[in-house]
Amino acid sequence: MLESTRVASWLRDAILDGVREPGSRLIERDLAAEFGVSRVPVRDALKVLEGEGLVELRPRTWAVVRAFTDHDLADLDEVREVVEPLAFRLAAQRHRREGLERLRRALEAEQASAEVEDRVVSRRAAADFHEIVTDLADNMLLSDLMQSIRSRLRWALSQHDDLQHIAEEHVALYEAIRDRDGDRAATLAAAHIESSRVQRTAHVQALQPGSPAAEAASS
């Protein structure tokens, strides 16, 4: 693996898992020392993440983790409302046995981690579930479109606290795909996007200063 790819992968996970919070600085010199590489692969990695919408480059030798605005997320939701029901419909119609097995494994990983409240693993598995569905849809243009918003979508999917609820919705979606019921899969996908929006709003509100969750986290 190229050094820049390795650095980009690590930083991407750190941002999406909440280790590197929005607004935090990413300084080339410090990252190079942390990874034991020169500044060149760090600089290249930051450019990759800028293209994915996760960081904003600053003059000279640093960047900041992007803070997504309400407008950014509304734009993403509008795109999801169009492409995800299609992806789930096509996945129901076109999936093969090995692809469905991959989807089942991702769902089981999500359920198991949700039960023990492992937020990082559960959220990653939830994002994997959506990406596998895109693979099952077997549409290259759709795959290219979803790839262009992959990191933004993963970030949005991580903004929830009710792990069990999301896992339960994924169970219903999996069953629709398994049953090759495209109409049901598309309908459930549209409802899932709205549910995700509600969950994300609740997550943001819970982190506001003065909320019980924020006070518990700071104590």
Describe the protein's architecture and organization.
The chain has two domains: 3-65, Winged helix-like DNA-binding domain superfamily/Winged helix DNA-binding domain (Arc Repressor Mutant, subunit A, Orthogonal Bundle), CATH 1.10.10.10; 70-206, Four Helix Bundle (Hemerythrin (Met), subunit A) (Up-down Bundle). It is 74% helix and 5% strand. The chain has helices at 3-16, 28-35, 39-51, 70-94, 97-115, 119-137, 140-148, 150-157, 163-178, 182-206, 212-218; strands at 25-27, 55-58, 62-65. Strands 1-3-2 form a three-stranded antiparallel sheet. Helix 2 packs across helix 3. The radius of gyration is 18 Å and the shape is globular.
List keywords for this structure.
Four Helix Bundle (Hemerythrin (Met), subunit A); Arc Repressor Mutant, subunit A; 219 residues; mainly alpha; 3-stranded antiparallel β-sheet; 11 helices; 2 domains
Q: What best-fitting shape do the alpha-carbon axes yield?
A: globular
Q: What class do helices, strands and sheet pairing give?
A: mainly alpha
Give the biggest beta sheet.
Answer: 3 strands, antiparallel
Low-confidence runs of at least 5 consecutive residues: none
